[in-house]
Amino acid sequence: MQNAVGAITARLAPQMDEAGLIRAAQNGDGDAFERLVRTYDQSVLRIAMNLLRSPEDARDVYQESFLRVYRNLQNFRFDCSFHTWLYRIVTNICLDHLRKRKVRKEESSVVETGDGPVDRMDQVREEGAHSDPERHLWNRQLGSRISGCLESLTPRERMVFELRHFQGMRLRNIGETLGTTEEAAKNCLFRATQKMRAGLGDLL
Amino acid sequence: MKCELVQQEIPLYVYGEMPAPAEEIFEEHINVCLLCEQELKKYRAFSDAITNAVEVPPVWLIAECRQSLSHLTRESPKRTHIQTWKLNWDWIFGSSIAFKVPLGAMALLALGFLVARLMPNVVPSLGSSSDGEIIYAGLISSVRSVQPDSSGHVQIDVDETRRRVISGNVQDSNIQQLLLAALRDESNSGVRVDVMNVLKDQAGTANVRKALLEAVAHDPNPGVRLKALEGLKRFEADPETRKTLSRALLADSNPAVRMQVIDLLTSQKDDSLIGMFQSLVQKDDNSYVVQKCQRALQEQNASIGTF
Asked: If 0-12 CB within 10 Å is exposed, 13-18 middle and 19+ buried, where does residue A5 land?
């Protein structure tokens, strides 16, 4: 157990010094900025992929988010956690993408081809799922249905569901990130789960 | 507590967002109400299904994004204060669109700079989670929240990063994208040589051939450049390939590379090379390269010197 504690302490030690990394990056330390990016970028990409269900858009969100962080880091005053500040940027950019899509009609990740409907997300899914064909098929069906259900959510409902379900954020933090109240975030979550369950009802 | 209210609150219960007193009342109701218990089970099934269908960013996409971002941020020279960075960025990105196009192209060319070296080789085990899964310290990238309860248990919400072994056919486009990303990681020439060893037989694919040509022209490691040249052997007649080879012959600092380039270029008769070979005979500082040029000129019945 002692070893375990030592191991996790050692592993998490760099996380404890996040403020130091931010200050170094504010003073022009490129390596510190890169470490900050690497701490959060997989989560950022995952949010973008789940919300937008398009690898191209996810890539755009990634670049836009971290470039915005890069350009505005000197304005970060530690009034909130870096995590909250970053996610506020990411969620705003994702919401912009989602709203633009709503305006020009929803772009589904499922596209029609000569060989039938194909989910573009399949092109980027990992090998792991392919090792179990049955699971892969199930995931494809479910993934397509989830894409369909997500389209029925408003951008804000989609965002709250993503942050609560997949990112594990507390409703209070979600409210803070989205510039709203915990109560409003809770109501969004209720609506999102109801719509999702209604859409997936026969599959589960 | 009425069934309607309990069922409405199920998501809050499952996500652990319910205050402790309300949670107790909720559980008391669930324990005696079959209908609500069923609803809770259904919700958990829904929740699990959604969780299992989560989109995990593939390694190559992360690598591409990191590399591209790294390149963009390193484009501006390092200064001691972020304000000067900002000025540089404003200058770069606020300039005309004509300047942005080549900048974007440069960023794309350098894709893959940071191949995800996600985890150390050996990760210590921390124990196991409540569902028996072994937890490794090296897989934890951050702890999001910690929720203790009165019974001494604690719920730790962590993000994990994992090193993954991805296997697949070398002709698979996803595998090739990952290999191409690794090829642009300038920090590890050993990996680039290994990658080149694999890709040199795939030069029939346009993307791969383009990467081989880029490696011949720009890779800092001569071993990688030599491997790339091996891959281009079947394409010595391709005009684009010959153009790159000609430039490499004049510019490459490594004589072994220059000699291999001569072999490729002379595998077919090409009078347009005579002037270049004659020039190299005069100027190249490596006697083997000079000899190869002389032999190439003799084979083409051209004079060795210029008059």
From this structure: exposed
Instruction: Determine the Cα–Cα distance for residues A163 and A182; give it in Å rounded to an integer.
Output: 13
Q: What is the mean pLDDT of residues B176-196?
A: 80
Sign of CA dihedral A76, A78, A83, A87: negative
CB B145 within 8 A of CB A170: yes
Taken in order of first residue, the domains within chain A and their CATH numbers are 1-107 (1.10.1740.10)
Instruction: Determine phi and psi for B159, rounding to 5 degrees.
Output: -95, 140
Q: Are B199 and B183 in contact (CB under 8 A)?
A: yes
The ipTM, to two decimals, is 0.71
Look at residue B251 in the predicted model and tell me its pLDDT: 87
Q: Are A195 and A163 in contact (CB under 8 A)?
A: no
Burial of A46 by CB count in 10 Å (0-12 exposed, 13-18 middle, 19+ buried)?
A: buried
The residue assigned the tokens 């091996």 is B230
What are all long-range contacts of B237-243, with beta carbons under 8 Å and residues at least 24 apart? B237/B268, B240/B213, B241/B209, B241/B213, B242/B270
Sign of the dihedral through C-alpha B107, B108, B110, B114: positive
Hey, are the CB atoms on B62 and A171 less than 8 Å from each other? no
Kindly report the CA angle at A84 between A78 and A87, in degrees rounded to 5? 130
Q: pLDDT under 50 in chain A at which residues? A: 1-16, 123-130
A-B Cβ pairs (cutoff 8 Å, strict): 158
What pLDDT was estimated at residue A85? 92
User: What does the block give as tokens for B217?
Assistant: 């022209």
Amino acid at A108: S
Containing B13, the helix (H) or strand (E) segment is: helix B3-14
Judged by CB atoms closer than 8 Å, whether chains meet at B61 and A39 is answered as no
* Dist. CA A140–CA B27, nearest whole Å: 35
Nearest chain B Cα distance for residue A45, angstroms: 7
Give Cα A108 to chain centroid, integer Å.
Answer: 18
Q: Are the Cβ atoms of A203 and B167 closer than 8 angstroms?
A: no
With an 8 Å Cβ cutoff, are A28 and B79 in contact? yes
Sign, CA torsion B73/B79/B82/B83: negative
Comparing B84 with A102, which gets the higher pLDDT? A102
Residue B117: pLDDT band with limits 50, 70, 90: very low
Q: State the Cα–Cα distance between residues B282 and B261, nearest whole angstrom.
A: 18
Beta-carbon count within 10 A of A167 CB: 18
Domain boundaries, chain B: 3-52, 59-109, 125-160, 174-268
- Structure-token pair, residue A147: 């894409």
**What is the pTM for the complete model shown?**
0.48
Mean pLDDT (whole number) for B90-104: 46
The distance of A31 to chain B (nearest Cα, Å) reads 10
